[in-house]
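haha ok so turns out i had the wrong file open the whole time. this is the CORRECT one, sorry everyone. sequence first:
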Amino acid sequence: MNTYGRSIVDAGFRFIAFDLRASDNTSLSNTRPVTLLLIAEDIHTIIETLNLQDVTLVGHSQGGKDVIAYEQVYGNEYLHSLCLMDTTPCTHQEEGFGYATRFDSYTKEQSDKDIASIRENSLDFFAEITQKGSPDLTLDEAREAAKKRLAHQHLPEAVDLYESSNSLDLRPGVEAINVPTAYMYAAKGTLIHPEIYKWYAEISSQIIIRYHLILQCMNFTLFRN
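then structure:
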């Protein structure tokens, strides 16, 4: 890894795409459960092995949590900036929740029931997000739907990572960020549920970071602290 990685950097490439161990595209097996902390360790190994400095970590969807987990464990020593993105395509564009129709065993009737439950409990839903310190679906219905989807895709490691994501409080990591940070979320009706942004708006009153609108277009809105 060191020789190969060094050759990539020496050749002038400055972007390294890191595929999570538990993603759909990986074939890497693991001897221990995949967690946010394990992913953070992987990222740190890459940075140290390649002797990188002034790193910009870009975390997409689940990767955003991995970025924060890395910063929470290893600090800002090697970091130049962070970019967190929620732009994962969803089936239910109007509602922004796409778990329900991504696999055959989960019917549209069940989907509609879950969405109705989420809508009915929306206030508690966002309150729980704020308290938990993690911008993710935390209602039992949504959590179980996601686990069913991952299990259907035969991704036990992704289930481990999902459980880790919902059990680790990321607020200490967010509070400690002192490098430029951008947050991008999808426009309503196009990609992932834009209401996730509300988590950042609400939690910002309790932490250091303040996001300011710097760019808005058809498909996304970009904030920077």
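The mean pLDDT is 59.
again sry for the mixup
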